[in-house]
Amino acid sequence: MGATVNQPPPRTPIRSLIGYGSFGESLRIGEILRKETVGGIVLVVAAAIAIVWANSPFADSYFALRDIRVGYEPWHLDLTLGTWAADGLLAIFFFLVGLELKREFVAGDLRDPRRAVVPIAAAVGGVAVPALIYVGVNASTPENTVGWAIPTATDIAFAVAVLAIVGSHLPSALRIFLLTLAVIDDLIAITIIAVFYTDSLELGPLLWALLPLTLYTVLAQRFRRFFGLRSSGAWFILLPLGFATWALVHASGIHATIAGVLLGFAIPVIRSQASGGPKAGPGLSEIFEHRFRPLSAGFAVPVFAFFSAGVAVGGLEGLASAATDPLTIGIVLGLVVGKPIGIVGVTWLLEKFTPVTLDKTLRWVDLIGLALLAGIGFTVSLLIADLSFAVGEPPNDHAKVGILGASVIAAILASILLKTRDRRYRALAEEEAVDADADGIPDVYEHDDAPVGERDPQPGDADGAGRSR
User: How far apart, in whole angstroms, are the C-alpha atoms of residue 339 and residue 33?
Assistant: First the structure.
């Protein structure tokens, strides 16, 4: 009887707009967000240093450092440090995006269309509405409309850093939804960059890129056959092939970060089984994510932010000029207003006109707070700003003022709103830990309508078993 008293209220995860998925997925996402929290704090510090330096008496040294050229010209790699950060280091970030996207659709909760439809629809709304607002504000200045995609991005590292700073105990359901939303957002951003921000295309290097990419994919899919149970040998083969793919894609005119996504997609996310035996150790996806995520969150993205966020505001006069520019206004309104309207609006429509409902333990105010967090569009927004407007020119500077300002405003508003719900979130966190039947799986993740194998996943076994995919 005591177990009945402590039993949390029943939920309908699959039919909920925002609900509890599998326990394994929750554990995995919790680990990702812990790593991204540290990276997000480093990211904010790096951006702050860049802004202070770029507006100090030593500003010339900052821009001189950013514009130092390094690389081999015959390979089209004679690039500035700022470009190396944007095209090279961010490829590591997008490699992890590729890994995460494939994992979500192959082994994560998004493989179930009933769970995937809500975050996908919300992400599309969170991209479309900001873009429409930006274009509407800049309708009278057609030269600015090239930056329509700037306010469409969500920076998950910055967002979870905000959560860490304000100390919000965000429930697992909201954390899963936030990360899934950001992953889908990244997929849309990748598509936008590839389709709309490729000025010229060289087919020769692009076709040549298929050779190392194909070999890389074959070796990655069969890495245990080629390299045995130890993966150390894979690094010496796969990394050069990955670099060759990246260099050729860069030479083709397509933004080189797209190569990172393709390389991530090529990695299998389901662990292979030895013939008739147990799993043969961790999968290559797990190995690469373990090795590359600290590099991405702790170095690659912060260095990019350092070189990209340093904008010379020009004092109060320059700040006033940027603040009154339709370009800046469109970005701020797109991120701070458009993102919440798009995400919450689409979710409300799904709740209104479909059988799914909001989880009983949550309120719409929780979703609004989450949508405000999604308005922190930092890393990818800065990248798209550099692709839209020439670096160092007023439109580029004003775009970055808008991105920085909008991210700060969205962070403050989200912090205030989520902080008011912190007591409720603490209670939900305690409820999530209840395991009345002592089977090692918290009761909130056990529900009758979950497919077999999802009701009782083993901790750390989110990948499952089976053939490589």
Answer: 21
Q: How far apart are CA 28 and CA 180, in angstroms?
A: 12
Give CA–CA dist 243/245, Å, rounded: 5
The long-range contacts involving 105-111, CB below 8 angstroms and separated by at least 24 positions, are 106/269, 106/270, 106/469, 107/269, 107/270, 107/462, 107/463, 107/464, 108/25, 108/462, 109/21, 109/22, 109/25, 109/176, 109/180, 110/180
Asked if 326 and 137 count as a contact pair (C-beta separation under 8 A), the reply is: yes
CB 152 within 8 A of CB 189: yes
Q: CA-to-CA distance for 317 and 322, rounded, in angstroms?
A: 9
DSSP H or E stretch at residue 70: strand 69-70
Query: So what's the pLDDT on residue 2?
Result: 45
* Residues near 271 by beta carbon (within 8 Å), at least 6 away in sequence: 279, 280, 281, 282, 283, 286, 463, 464, 465, 466, 468
Nearest to 107 by CA among 400, 466, 468, 462: 462
DSSP secondary-structure letter at 335?
Answer: I
- Cβ atoms of 398 and 325 closer than 8 Å: yes
Q: Phi and psi for 468 in degrees, rounded to 5?
A: -65, 140
Instruction: Tally the residues of the chain.
Output: 469
CA 213 to chain centre: 23
pTM: 0.80
Can you spell out the DSSP letters for 245-311? HHHHHHHHTS-THHHHHHHHHTS--SB-B-TTSSB-SS-HHHHHHHHHHHHIIIIIHHHHHHHHH--
Query: What tens digit of pLDDT does each residue of 120-167 get?
Result: 899 999 999 999 999 999 999 989 999 999 999 888 778 877 877 766
Which ranges of the chain have pLDDT less than 70? 1-36, 108-109, 166-168, 223-235, 270-283, 429, 432-469
**How far apart, in whole angstroms, are the C-alpha atoms of residue 187 and residue 194?**
11
Beta bridge partners of 279: 273
CA contacts within 13 A on the Cβ side of 278: 3
The pLDDT assigned to 3 comes to 46
